[in-house]
Design brief:
Elements lengths: L6 H24 L27 E12 L3 H7 E2 L4 E2 L2 H4 L3 H5 L3 E6 L21 H9 L3 E3 L9 H14 L3 E3 L5 H4 L3 E5 L2 E9 L20 H13 L4 E7 L10 H13 L3 E3 L9 E4 L8 E4 L4 E3 L9 E12 L4 E19 L2 E8 H9 L8 H17 L7 E2 L6
Parallel strand pairs: 1-4, 1-13, 4-5, 5-6, 8-9, 9-10, 10-12, 15-17
Antiparallel strand pairs: 1-14, 2-3, 7-8, 11-12, 14-15, 15-16
Amino acid sequence: MINIPDRNKSYRARACLAVILAALAVLAFAGCGMVDYGTGGPADTPAVSKKIYTPPRIETVEIALVGDIMVHKDMLVSAYDSKTGGYSFAGFFSEAEPYLSSADLTIGNLETTVAGPEKGFTGYPQFNTPSELLTALRSAGFDVLTTANNHSLDRREYGVLKTIENLESAGLEHTGTFSSAEERGRYLIIERNGIKTGILAYTYGTNGIPVPQGKDYLVNLLDMERIKEDIIKIRNMGADIVLVYPHFGIEYRRNPGEQEKKLVEELFAAGADIVAGSHPHVLQPMERRDREAGKSGFFAAYSLGNFISGQRGRFKDSGVIVSLKFEKNFKTNEIKLIESGYIPTWVHKYWDGGRRRFRIVAVEKAKKDYEDGKDSKLNAGDYARLKQVWEETGSMLSGPGAPELRQVNGS
């Protein structure tokens, strides 16, 4: 019997087959990227990950340094307010405030005791100044005052302790004199923008006034072996930058002696990054050096001169605000000195309302203000002295390694 095929059934079979083949083709195409040809399949192909670059954290800190802060008798008279019976020193510093407060950390040498009225307020030769001075300094932008100098013991142990108390009441950090051995061992480290600056201060002596027996912690005296130990300890406590304020040298000499040069070299070798000298009451040379890779530069100012005082005469009435900028790479912990500059300053002594007044002015701005007729307190003699200070300072701080002159807005 010969079967004759059913045409409709055959057509349905062919149609079904076509659908199946089309479906298989689609699956094969969709899965072609996952076909394993025997090597490099998913099981043995390492995953490819994208590395995202994270730039290292970079921060900077700007440190401003000034020299001696002293209050002589005529300055006490100037600051006294007979109506209130108090003192006001705000006008002494108001025109310097923009330059002081713009830094991250501002430091000066307090060369007077602040022992209170019960010990009597006096100028040279044994200083004791009202606590209003500290309030004015804090308002002007100061953060730290060093207290190790030849006038530290002008009111003996009581004066040291009372000065510390008044500094703390004014919100000022301090180092150089201490109330106990424990306090001396704590070390002053100031952190700004994640960068830590350790500050140490020492003096050559105390004008023949002996440190009380068994209380050598009261005043830091210049002792190189002790300083080396302090630098090591303050580094171990985390200081990125070590600043040393030595009170040394010979008064009114405009160049450092061999002894001062030797001490600065020893401080440099011991690991100090900044040396800010005081005591001569006149400006002396400054220098900046580079260190090996991974360490900051080294900056030395043999004497920063007088920032404020009643001393008159050429060289004694002028100073500088030094600005140092450090940069830290937090990935490598490398820190380096990237900028150094200075602003020349002058203590202007003038008459106002029948009374002698004092103020610190930025030399460049004061010159321009006089030329433009914007400052009636300045006279022709003042202008001549300002031009002289400008030349003196520029001449002293010129040459290789010296800081750059920092421009001041004259408006």
